[in-house]
Design brief:
single chain, alpha/beta, 2 domains, 13 strands, 36% helix
Length: 262
């Protein structure tokens, strides 16, 4: 075989490898049962499993799905180590990721506390209390507001923050009286309560947060990838009778809520 043929084969092999890589979509998720979690045998599972798989399949791509710790998740989405994700819709992320234009899922951000604890009544009511948060979660900037609530004269924090790595661990802290309030999303807490039941647990809805797909901004051919995935998503939603549930992301409302919280 002469040098020209060898070079041609090498170039062809490289082209095939690049094409194959471009047809893979790396979907990253956090442990967020029952929506998304990893089964004992290491497989992506959850109620969004089929939606993600079919969206990627109908778009003409192959799915690679992996779970990542919450504390690294958003950084990996910014750097492009994660291409596709399902994340809360926030003004902070809007400039850092390519959001899809619509949503149909939402998350209920909720305060949990024992019956003996005063009802949650806004961030300022947490002064002097201990708060349990899931490590790596920002909760639509609410975590920052909690951490930054300080005495204006001394600069000392008014809230003791306790971090938990898992939702079950967070419930154990509340159950043991080591934290006054748990701030978390409703769905994973409902799932965790099956493993860690807590008697006399009360809750107060803080706010509803929209959830949709997003792409890393440095995704190659992002416009084409976005369009293909969006079409694949809508094909899946049409087949499952959910297409009419899609709504435009209300950015004006989100901006107004963010302004009122500051």
């Amino acid at each position: 075989m002469n040098i020209i043929n060898i070079t041609t084969l090498l170039l062809l092999g490289t082209q095939i490898a690049v094409t194959a890589a471009e047809k893979n979509i790396h979907f990253g998720y956090m442990d967020f049962a029952p929506w998304a979690y990893t089964s004992p045998d290491g497989q992506f599972q959850g109620t969004t499993n089929e939606e993600v798989k079919k969206t990627v399949e109908y778009a003409g791509y192959k799915l690679n799905a992996h779970e990542y710790p919450a504390k690294r998740y958003y950084t990996m989405l910014m750097t492009g180590e994660i291409q596709l994700a399902a994340v809360p819709v926030t003004l902070e992320l809007k400039e850092k990721v390519r959001y899809f234009d619509e949503y149909w899922h939402s998350l209920k951000l909720t305060a949990y506390y024992l019956n003996s604890t005063p009802a949650f009544d806004g961030i300022k009511s947490l002064a002097g209390k201990s708060i349990v948060l899931i490590r790596g979660y920002n909760y639509g900037k609410l975590a920052d507001a909690i951490v930054n609530l300080k005495n204006t004269q001394t600069g000392e924090s008014l809230i003791k923050v306790i971090y938990a790595d898992k939702h079950e661990q967070a419930l154990l802290l509340i159950k043991a009286g080591r934290g006054d309030y748990l701030i978390d999303y409703e769905l994973p807490v409902i799932s965790a309560l099956k493993t860690v039941p807590v008697d006399n647990l009360k809750s107060t809805l803080i706010k509803e947060i929209y959830l949709t797909f997003s792409l890393a901004k440095n995704t190659a051919n992002i416009d084409d990838v976005h369009s293909s995935l969006d079409n694949g998503w809508k094909q899946y939603l049409k087949e499952t009778g959910n297409l009419d549930k899609l709504k435009k992301i209300p950015w004006d409302k989100i901006k107004a809520e963010s302004t009122s919280e500051n």
